[in-house]
Amino acid sequence: MTLMTGKGRKAGWALIAGLVLVAGCSGDIAGELSRNVQVRDRVMGAIVADSTLAGDMAGRLLGSDQQRRHVIETILADDRSAQYVIYRIGRNPEALHLVLQAATSDSAGRAYVMSMLDRLQNLKNSAKKK
Q1: According to the 3-state scheme, what is the secondary structure of 54-115?
Q2: What is the pTM of this model?
Q3: Which of 49, 29, 48 is nearest to 39 (CA)?
Q4: 60: left (phi > 0), else alpha (psi -120 to 50), else beta?
Q5: What number of CA atoms fall less than 13 Å from residue 16's CA on the CB side?
Q6: What is the mean pLDDT of residues 107-123?
Q7: Which tens digit of pLDDT belongs to each residue from 17-58?
Q8: Following CA atoms 108, 109, 110, 113 in sequence, which dihedral angle do they give, to the nearest 10 degrees?
C-alpha cells in the first residue's frame, strides 16, 4: 500500500468537496425553488424563454386531473386568457360540439341553449325585415 503525495491528497479532497457540492445542489430542487425567489425566477424565465421547454412544462402541468384543474381555473380567472380560450373553442367545430354537448346535458341547459337559439333566430329575422 502506498501513501498519496501532498498533491494527490489535495486532489482527493478537492474531488470529495466537489462531489459534496454537486450533491447538495442537486438535492432538493423543489425546496430550493420554494425558498429562493431568485432561483425560481431564473428557472421560470428559462422555461418561458424556450418554447420547447414551455411546451414540455405545459404537458406536465396538464398531466394529472388535479394539476389540470388548477391550470384551467388559473386560465379562466384571467380575462384575456379566458377570452382567447373561448375564441379558440368557437373556431374549432369539435370543441364547440363538446361545449354544446356539455351545455345540453341536462334539461336546464337544454332550455337555456334553446332560448339562445330562439333569440338568435329572432335577431336574424328582424335583420332581414330591415
Answers
A1: HHHHHHHHCCCHHHHHHHHHHHHHCHHHHHHHHHHHHCCHHHHHHHHHHHCCCHHHHHHHHH
A2: 0.59
A3: 29
A4: alpha
A5: 6
A6: 94
A7: 554 444 555 557 788 788 888 888 888 899 889 899 899 999
A8: 120
Residue whose grid cell is 330591415 = 130
Fill in the amino acid letter for 64.
S
Length of the chain: 130
| Cell matching residue 19 | 462531489
Q: Which residue has the cell 462531489?
A: 19
Q: CA-CA distances (angstroms) from residue 76 to 71, 81, 84, 86, 104?
A: 9, 6, 10, 10, 21
**The C-alpha cell that represents 129 in the structure block:** 325585415
